[in-house]
Amino acid sequence: MILTLQDDSELWLGEIFDNHYEEARSRADSLLAEGTITNTGCIVTNTAKPRKVRFHGRQVAAYRFVYCVLNRVVASYDDVIRHRCHNRLCINPEHLTIGNRADNKHDDWEFQANGVDFDLL
Question: Any idea what DSSP says for residue 90?
């Protein structure tokens, strides 16, 4: 028997996918519809900092919620949602990918050295 330990984030997302997926999908779609599309293809929220979303007892960053719900990814606390566009206000699922903190730091170094090539997004 293999025992898999899950953190609180994984348990919450698992519960959402098992019992509330249609509601979560609708919420993610409404967040995208409320956003503004920039000339770089980012879908940004009208907030100064990354928007937060409260859903079934938990508050998370909107970009994390959108990515996890639309891709049906059960992300752990240690997983980060990386912005390929380097715009933390962006919730465009095409600009988001999952990784770890080291991946995220390498993205920062790459961005500082070379910027963003929006043609590759």
Answer: B
